[in-house]
Fold each of these.
Amino acid sequence: MPVSLLAFVLIFGLVVIVHELGHFAVAKLAGVRVAEFGLGYPPRLVRIARRGDTEYTLNAIPVGGFVRVLGDESPNDPRSLAQKGPWLRAAFLFAGPAMNVALAALLFAVSLMIGVLTPIEGPGVGIYGVAPGSPAAAAGLRPGDTILEIDGAPVSTIPDLHALVNARLDQEIALTVRRDDRVLEEPIRLVPRSVHPEDQGAMGIVIGEPIGRVAYPPWEAVWLGLQRTGWTLVSIIAGLVAMVRGSIPPDLTGPIGIARMTAEVARTGVAQLVDWTAFLSINLFIINLLPIPALDGGRLVFVALEIVRRGRRIDPGKEGLVHFVGIVLLLALFLVISYFDLVRIAQGTPLPGP
């Protein structure tokens, strides 16, 4: 299995399994029968263990997991979720997304303890972005690198870099680069373009102040991790609201695009990969709480209606039909997004990201 695909499977699997653990924990605490906790998605490969009424299984599709509880198919069973009150069912549904927020806060704290890339004072020009398919990408430059010299000439400021690169367009240049607080032994060689896309420069990089890695002690990292979680939540929600209002064009990606972006992030370092996992976990929190049938948010809408109706449930058959239609529409949306992901990858268009 290629390293990039393995990184996607492990990261997406972690985010989904932690989500399912939230549902699992509340069901167990509430006395709801959990028939199965599965790693991956069916078909089943093997039963790992059985504890009480719960089977723990390993399944063929190695992404994520699931929890199967006794529900509306056994409404008279005292251990069925259908027998529980609306507030407990709401807690069961909300627990999965809540675990994704907790995971994100933990991961942000871990990345802060490892060390985050931060603008620092000093000579050099920092790289904050690398365009796919550009000379910089082909040469192996990464976000977080700092260019110190070009062909032996010092690069102290951004104007220095522009002057040195523009004097050597369409010629090979050698960059002395600092990466992760150490200067690379071998220079990075590339050919800056005189002809390039309008949204890119000669090398295809986004530049700014020099970059260094700053690590925080655990007591600071935990608090800063909580802050980053809150800022990321607000930022993603603001972006979704802007898309709904038409202020910005829709910019969505599916599993194919996420796998591609995960591979790109994995090449930039462990801390960035941990941050990316936290970002995905927050996205899963938000998406699952959208009031869309078949998602946790859509099911919570029916629980809220039951509370408003003072305990009178919507007929389970009708609710099931709504969720079935929701699943069909979500699968159709998934196929459409996946098609556009493939088109963007084929054309070399950057995929949306944090």
Amino acid sequence: MDDAGLIVRFGAAMAALGPFERAPRLAAGVSGGADSMALALLADAWARERGGSLLALVVDHGLRAESAVEAKLTVSNLAARGIAARLLTITDLIKGAAIAVRAREARYRVLTDACGRDGILHLLLGHHAADQAETVMMRILSGSGGRGLAGMPVLTETGSLRILRPLLAEQPSSLRAYLLRKDVSWVEDPSNRDPSALRARLRRLRDNHGAEADDTRCLVDAATAAGQRRAANDVIMAHALAEGATVRPEGFALLSQGRIRPEALAELMRMIAGAVFSPRMDQVAAIAPELKPRTIWGVRILAAGRLGEGWLVVREEAAVEPPVPAIDGALWDGRFRLHTSNPLPAGTLIGALGAAAARVRQHTDLPAAVLRVMPALWRRNILVAVPHLLYPDAMACEGGYRLVFNPPRPLTSAPFLPA
């Protein structure tokens, strides 16, 4: 297969992701592997043809002694091709439980921050067809429902970025062949073959059967079909939530009486818990047809009581995170973001209102289950303010700061976009 075919397919994938500005500014997450190096070359050529530019963001997770040297080599290789590159080093990762998940979260964090500093709205990632196939296999093994079997979307929109995966339909062999023809070297990360990681074990199993292209294509086709069904269900779910759920800025939701679709309840629980991923669908499907008071997956479901008919979905108090310093941009409990134009006094913390809820009951009709998990400002264990209640008064809560309910993902967004 020649370069022209790959370039045409890349351009078609980018075109399918919607309009870009006249001179697009793109960023690409680059690990140094063949997939991300091919992505950098393709995206750089695509952007230059349109008068734009690419910034390659090379991430060093700091988990191996050799990683720093490899990351610097990748930056040099990109620079030799005329591609601007910046090294991003993660310094707080420690090997141990859930390292793959923690590394992914840290990687997305530093990539998002870097794009924000440069005002870049489009971040490209080099996930390819084999990555998609392995993701589907992992979802199957985890008992994921139809939504999970859709795998990774080709487009994800966050609060500040459009994350694009234009290589999801490409076989890794075609990307390696492209780099060889271009005489571009890449780095093979040994952690990709670490047998302690499920993804690596699945990759080795597929390699050993010698049918990478065929089984990958089948799994990617299955993910595409599941993604199309998920997209249709996303529209239905959004309508169901719009009609039956009210999300309050204090960080809880009110559900009207009646049944709720399991997918809708799962997304609602995910948002109220401040989580990135939704709970397992089999857990939610068992409770959605007939809601009753319970605590599950970091949230409480209880009767709305004084707030009317229906049900409350509230953060579980025992699952709430400890207080964090009240500085601009601070995120507490994965749900509330502090925005401030003037620094708050040293020692100010954001934490749950907790037992102090009894002191503010006269200021609101919200039930105690909601009040106890609301964010409050504390200093030396003294309650300073509860901004959502304007407590102790409006003046104390209007000091140039805002505490905004800001979960990592919105309740609903554009429908899932399969590759």
Amino acid sequence: MPEELSEQELRRLLLDKRRIARQQRLERFRSSGRAVMLAPDLPPAALEEWRASPGDERPAEGPLSELARSPRRRWMDGILLIVEIMAVVGLAGILFNGMGLLRTLNQEVAAALQQPTLSPTPLITAVVLPSGHTPPSAQGYSEFNKAEIPEHLLPLMKPQANLPIPTPGPEQAIRISIPAIGVRDWPVVQGDGWEQLKKGVGQQIGSTNPGQTGNLVLSGHNDIYGEVFKRLDELKPGDTIIIFTINRQYVYIVTGSQIVEPTQVEVMAPTSDPILTLISCYPYLIDNKRIVVFAKLQNP
């Protein structure tokens, strides 16, 4: 009977009952997979020592505490700590490098988006004004006048002679008419080289198209190949010059003329206004200078 047992015996009976109940729960958990065996059951000596300890306190020394303090466990804990520290350091390095890479990319994108200050490219590449030739002989023979070209500029002539001739587009000049001097519906070709000016009036490659802002430069002969610009010196301010394209016609009003040296290529310089510049050799049958006629676009 319980009343016949001493206090020590009751305590031991209660502990046994608790141990059996705990063991049964563990067995149920293990069978269902909810618990696993991490350490072997305590030996009888350890159980006796545990039972002899007052209350539910565990002994300070024993197999469990020895397992917790085993060198292998401490070694594994140290390795895990080192791995964690290395992971943190690696993550910090990745973040630092990522920020540096992002900063570099931003600088490169900003540099790519920053457009350099553009300066206008001069259209003048000629060393002399176009349409130059020797005075025609009695048989009408003439050729390109190389004597006009300064000796130090002769090496530049070959690259200019090889410039490709663009295919005429719908906005480029195709015909010219100057009623005041009898020029009626003459063809305009692209390029103002020796071969191009045999076919008609030549448009300087790179000069602006009719009606557009800039300097439209046209050249023609005065005493050979049709003498299209023979009477160019008769033009007066107010005379009209009509330039035709495939789509429409443009009217220019003469503003003045000038006699210049063959090397004064600045008359072909780009302008901020829509103007027309006509160039031909001068005087008639002598051809040692150039006559230049300037006109502005009517109602641009």
Amino acid sequence: MSKRKSRSPLSVIAVAIVAALTVLVLFADAPVDPSGAERLFSVPKGASTRWIAQSLADESLVRSSLATFAYARALGKTLKAGTYRLSPALRAHEVLAVLEEGKQEEVRVTLAEGLSLSKVARRLESAGVIPAGDFVRAASDPVILREFGIPGKTAEGYLFPDTYFFPYGIAAEDAVRMMLRNFFARVPAIEGAPADPARLFEAVTLASVVEREYRLDDEAPLIASVFKNRISIGMGLQSCATVEYIITEIEGKEHPTRLTAKDLEIKSDYNTYLWAGLPPGPISNPGTVALRAVFTAPRTNYLYFRLVDPETGKHRFTRSLEEHVEAGRTYYLKRAAGD
């Protein structure tokens, strides 16, 4: 009859320790709250693994800061800075996997054509991306402007209208660079885009005016041709949009319901009723339609355009002041007659 060997006290203790550690690991890795809602969690740049583990525990996203720290260190995980959407329903190792992957939570912002720099800044602030003042300062940073070869005093005109996905906590400088990279990736591909930075700046400036004047896409090239014709004969652009820019962006006043004769006499380099040629810089951030209209403006003999249908935005284009005045007279007569 064989005798069973009895286990030594040490082996029993070892098994007990392994079992206890297994239970501890399983407990530490378990979700804090299987029905918990998602929340945002931010990791600042330079944060240590220990700090991150403790913050996760403080936010009730993991059960144990010590176990989470030990797990991350043992597996050599590199946890990335940023803002993430995490849930207490995740296991600790799943939380760490999200931070290691570095796929940050983003804010979706759509910026329409024709917004000025200040309006873009306010839109980003209202979306919770960046304080407006920080964005304006970054868009006026000479270092960034030189980096992208922009000869203006700000990035006005180059903040390409588009839908952007900004990581939470993005620096203002990085947001400006993101938008400028988008501009220089998209615009050079448009037919007729100038390669020379100075000529591109002039084209963007004119496109920013066209952007604020046209309402029908197919009329944008004709409006661009009118302005180019005026420039070629030394005539002022006479764009109401530039005067509105002075009032709202430079003087900081409310947008006027209509311009007065006094408004057209405002002393400013941007007043295209007083000075011939282009304004000193863009007055908005133009989109593809306005940019293409300027890059490929048709040859016409038009010098004037007048709105003849406020509902559709349709204009009548004319060659002389007499025709322009007559177009206006016809328009007002039709309105009086109820047509």
